[in-house]
Model the fold of this input.
Amino acid sequence: MNRANLKEKLPILVTAGVLLVMTLAAGLHFPNFLTLRVLTNLLADNAFLGVVAVGLTFVILTGGIDLSVGSMVGLSSIMAAKLVSAAHWHPLLALAAPLLAGALLGAGQGYLVARFSLPPFLVTLAGLFLCRGLALRISQESVQIDHPFFNALTGWSVSLPGKASLSATSVTFLLVVAVGIWVARQTTFGRSIYAIGGNAASARLMGLKVSRTLIWTYVLSGFCAALGGALFTIYTSSGNAISGTGLELDAIAAVVIGGTLLSGGYGSVLGTMLGIGILGVVQTAITFQGTLSSWWTRIVIGALLLAFMLVQKVIETAARSTTAS
Amino acid sequence: MTPILELSGIGKRFLSVTALDNVDFDLRAGEIHALMGENGAGKSTLIKTMTGVYPPDAGTIRMEGAAILPRSPDEAVRHGISTVYQEVNLVPNLSVMENLLLGRMPKGPFGIKWGAARERADRAIARLDLKVDVRAPLSSLSIAMQQMVAIVRALDVSAKVLILDEPTSSLDASEVDSLFAVIRRLRDEGLAIVFVTHFLDQVYAISDRITVLRNGLKVGTWTVAELPRLELVSQMIGRDASSLDRSALTVLSSAQGQPIIGAENLRRRNSVANLTFDIRPGEVLGLAGLLGSGRTETVRLLFGIDGPDSGTLSLDGRRISRLRPREAIRHGIGYLSEDRKREGLFPELSIRENMLVLHQVKHGWYRRVSKAQQKAMAKELAERLRVQPPDVERPIQYLSGGNQQKVLLARWLAVEPRLLLLDEPTRGIDVGAKFEIMSLVESLRQAGRSFVFVSSELPEVVRSSTKVVVMRDRKAVGTLEGDAISEERIVREIAAP
Amino acid sequence: MSRLPTWAWAAMVLIGLLLFNLFLTPGFFHVEVRDGHLYGSLIDVLNRAVPVGLLSLGMTLVIATGGVDLSVGAIMAIAGTVAAELIARPTGTPFEGGKSAPGLAAPMALLTALGCGLFNGLLIATLNFQPIVATLLLMVAGRGVAQLLANGQIVTFSEPAFASLARGATFGLPNPVWMLLGAFVVFSLLTRATALGLFVEATGSNPVAARYVGIDARAVKIIAYALSGLCAGLAGLVIAADIQAADANNAGLYLELDAILAVSVGGTALAGGRFSLVGSMVGALLMQTLTTTILTRGVSPETTLVLKAAVVVVVCLLQAPSFREIFRRRVRA
Done:
């Protein structure tokens, strides 16, 4: 491996290694852990988070941040539920409408960031407030969805051996990851995102459409967050305005654990998927343990974040000393 | 001969400052046209109007006779105007190949065709005879090589006009030569080239015509033969050239006393080696050598930014293992960095705060210097160094490069260091400020202060130094003292096998 | 050329909002004295602005160094929990069984908060972690730790002396308002009567240059994050004392965002450098006035969120040079 590539490749290798070790360790400790069924459940439990994190990965690659994704999940979820139960829309339309809303919100945020160079942190903070506020205005109570088509969607799955099955949400997640990887690697849009994260001023001088790319990046993130909300709605068969509270933190954690630098320019969608995997394994293992309380998840995620930050620090130092020589 | 690019009556204002006023400029195919001027003359602004960074407020731009108004670098490129900037404007985290082709990658039904991209990148690189793995991340290349990549990129878009904005400032002599060879070839192929530089030698080495700007106005355009060096300088600074001759300083004598700092066989791996010298009160130690010869690295060791791997440093006769900037400051050593923006300025703080922050650090954080006292000190320093504007409450970011440099120098003068390390103190600033700064250095030297002086301009080194350490390939290769100091000797030392 | 302070926009919006209330919200400016305490919407605004105000003092310094502290909400939860448990000694927690120690509650909680701040500062100053990431750690894990300490319960207690921190009044004004005032004076003296403010601004403006003029940027950053932690601890105490309970899940939730907002609305650039403590106070008051205005006008509380979003965007835009440029062009045209 080219040593200069170290900074790019090593974090994801470390993430993959940790995921493998943790999964195996959990498998040794809990005999039933290493079954396809547990793993597909893990996938289903985290599909909505994963979709959100994939969108967020692109924003973080540009060197930005999107804090609005958690609230967008809530808005999307309550919007879809209300459209089905109160407005009697067809579930497909009801699930699609929030996607449009998410994309629009993303476009607004992206416009403010790109056109007026406002800090993404603050702009998406406004987005966070806006979405949560709108969601709560729609309904403060949880809304159940009962519709034949919707039930079919919730029940739909691809059967796999060992009583395992891939739910519709899991399939969507895997598709989003595949598309995400393709966009990041094979499209001008994706490469421009990396360029902006590396040096936005240079990217502009190189003739890249920096503003347009930034706006589309936030559109993508908003869309993915809304899609995450739709998946969450399918997953729980209900809509709730406060769902997704604090989800932005989990998503950011997954992206960072996946090896993407918050300063932008380095990272990958695949890494984010592995990061989601690690979060999922921690959660599942704690559930398996049974006696550990749920807050341990947060503490372990925090500890993992710290560990990964330390690893990245070591890699960065190593990379610097190799380029210097 | 009709010009390929013609600017007429260009005007541009920034808030209350007129950057360009009714400037005409024309560029012919197959010529290298040097654009010269002091800092604040309007060179960069003029270039930025051509490249679409700042659309002009007034005037017209014609490309091959047709009026154009590029509103972004991208549009300028589409009109055939490509630019290579002083600072490498590429993306460090992407590969050389992507840096070359970004925005025009070959694409197929499944997106970017990486194989085809690599072939194109290899071909483009081969045009300048460079040896680079196009898959390597740009950040793994030297700055000079990155600059070459930037030029390759500019050429790859069928450019008709190539603007080189101080492309040589981070290149060494041999790299400049190979760059010039390429530029000449491109000129002979019919490209129109605008060349901006601070190096007079390079202007005469390569240009066909010279346009001089001053204070946002065009002074004139000449062919190189019409404009001898001295004339060029006086046009640039708007003064009679003969006054420059008086800048020659009095003959310097060697100083006495205990060395403030001494280096013995100092070495830092991959950085600099073989440093043996001492600096006594009243001495100016010149560090001469090509870019990348280890001059800046030496200064960084002396200020404690980097630590040596072997050898000894001594401060006032006491041996120490290594320094840190804070200790160096405590011992009366100061450092004026080559990189003002990155290592010197606090852009949004005022002139006063920029001047006196160091004074305050020496005072200790809990004993604040009163604002009245600060103002008085800052005013005095600003007057002494003729800082423009004299309003010391202005944020420093709005000052010209030369005035910023004066403020940074004043920052050190405020704490009266015994030894001041000056790394290219006159680079990128106008001739007037240059002269003022160097005169000040000399008067301080006569008062017993010491300096280490790094400069790419040999005449400056020769004129100001009592002792010169010549550096080559990251090693000190010789020391000249007293009458032995001459440009010729230094060049011979640098070129010695 | 005399320039408006950077917080002028926020002050104008605040004044506009107060004028709006003066004309359209009956009784908004009505203040009355009951049992020697002042009551009224204005007093209420002041009192409720205290937690965010306290947070924004520490946050101002942190942001001026070029960083940000996302963990203050979580630190509030930890501090509140520590205080509550030292008083109530609930079973099933690490604090079970000891003697109730109300006198120790506040100092220990503040000490814990200071420790959290120091942890952030050390990660950032000595290991060079990006502030967002470093403080994200405690933001994520901190509430977990608080829940661990409280064993997942909401710890309630009844301790009049402690409660008076939030509920009592001195010279008519509620105690929290005095605390905020005191903290503001202390911070102002600490930063402007010494050179700490200048060093903070220099560090945030250009860390490399700061190092080369001998500023101990590490110490500066550690101090900033420690102070921010301390402020969070204080805010956590005020909230715990007010509701006489510690809720590890919800205490201070999203308050870090409110504080960052207050600081930024108050004219301190998120990129670091120049800061204004007065501006942050104006920012905190503005956010609270907005909330109170909405509540007193009988609009549903969730609308506050939407309006907050609008305020963030408007104030950010007003501060953005590229946005002002548009207006300048319009005016000229």
User: Anything to note?
Assistant: The first strand of chain A starts at residue 143 and ends at 144.
